[in-house]
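Record format v2
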Amino acid sequence: MVCVLSSIIAIPLFSIVWKVVSKGYKQISLEFFTQNIPNSWEASLALKSGNIIPGGIAPGITGSLFMVAIASLMAIPLGITIGVYLCENPNNKYASIVRFISDLLQGVPSIVIGLITYSWVVTTLKSYSALAASVALTIMMLPMIIRSTEETLKMLPNSLKESALALGASRIKTTYYVIIPSAFSGIFTGILLSVSRVIGETAPLLLTSLGSSSINWNIFSPTSSIPTLIWDFYNDPNLLNMVWSSSLILLTIVFVLNYIAKTVSQSRNN
Amino acid sequence: MTDKIFKQLLFVLSLIVLFITAGMIYSLVSGSLPALREFGIFHFISSSEWDPKAENYGALPFIVGTLLTSFLALLISLPFSLSIALFTGEYYKNSRFSRIISSFVNLLSGVPSIVYGLWGFYSIRPIIINMGISSNGLGILTSSIVLAIMIIPYASSLSSEFLGMVPANLKEASYSLGSTRLEMIRNVMIPYASSGVTASYILALGRALGETMAVTMLIGNTNNLPSSLIATGNSMASIIANQFGEADGLKLSSLIAIALLLMLITAFINLIGKLIIRRFQ
């Protein structure tokens, strides 16, 4: 019976993948990746004549990559450094507070983080922006990167650090040239997993970057992203078909990232 | 010299985490003060009115919606996640089959919540309508079902770890006294790992409480107190997501107050879970 109940888990997985693939492949083409978002009117015309909806989600793809890249730029150095700090001070009372707060931060619902970022960045800059979204995504990525860095570093043998210091390297050099490269695959896995989680988040993006109708590289203006586009398409009856193709892209990105993370962590274990 | 600077730098950077959290709490509290002052905390939590025209806001329907969907999701996920945990933690512990199940579960955990919402809307909802349970297929039950599927990976991987931590000599001692596998699981493993497994479910509950997109798409978006499992309603996260766009003044403040409540509830649940785990170790 345990066998049966466990195997049932395959059903939702296959159902989701099947649904997204079967309904989404029709819209996929080179144009899908390169063209601008269709508007409702064009879509209704296309629907009536039985063609696929013209246009694509290029603004969403570039927007997502842009915002996640900026968030990573902010979160990765900060997260790794804080992880190093926590690993260097395992018994310090202050460090345990930081660890505790970092765990707390991880449990905060994404919409609350979006709300906070809205009141910090969007109200200050007086417009929705990619920067606000990146700040929200950074806050979401930080705890995961901190934790995975700390866990990976804890598993490194102490002798590595001690021998580097004994050879006369300064602390900074030891950290960034010896310890982190050795721990690279573990840290990399943590980064990949946090990126894959954050790239699919909709709620904070809705409240911070809103969305725009064209490709936008300006960090201070509203930017589209794949999840917000999916949400917009979902709410527009004419653009419904685009929902599945966009989900297909998103799902593929997330699965590929997870697969790479798993392969990297497995090769490390071997 | 640089070493000292480096150490100080690390310390200063770690302060950022504290600042973010403190700033978050401060912003939430200061943003919700207008609404809380206007309605009084107790009244706000217990009132079911959400009337933009009369500027009268109460959070009770949403609190109930969130708690109801999350606890129901936990209940629904229990048999499945426990089975998977037993499966991968004990029965087929290091076998190929359990690795396949684990990878399926991992893939499920990676699916973005908006895709879950879409799938729930287009796959689960017709099933609910066809079974005659509800006419529009949305509501507490539908969102709980999808929420359950979303938290199964989280609950099962955590409990599987705890079940795997049961020392082998304890299990072997049980076998040597003549117990069957089921008896061993029931009398040795589960009591030993019970606090860890409970903590896993509490943490999964914490995840479910904060889930926004999938619930928003499936819960029906009505501002009333849900009267039954098939009734539609709203959760704290979904009301914020839905009404945030054009909110200002007292409405915005009420939404921020709801966010504060949500954060407190989630933090509280997560705290209990982590404390149990710490005691277990």
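Chain A is about 75% helix and 0% strand.
The CA atoms of residues 149 and 170 of chain A lie 21 Å apart.
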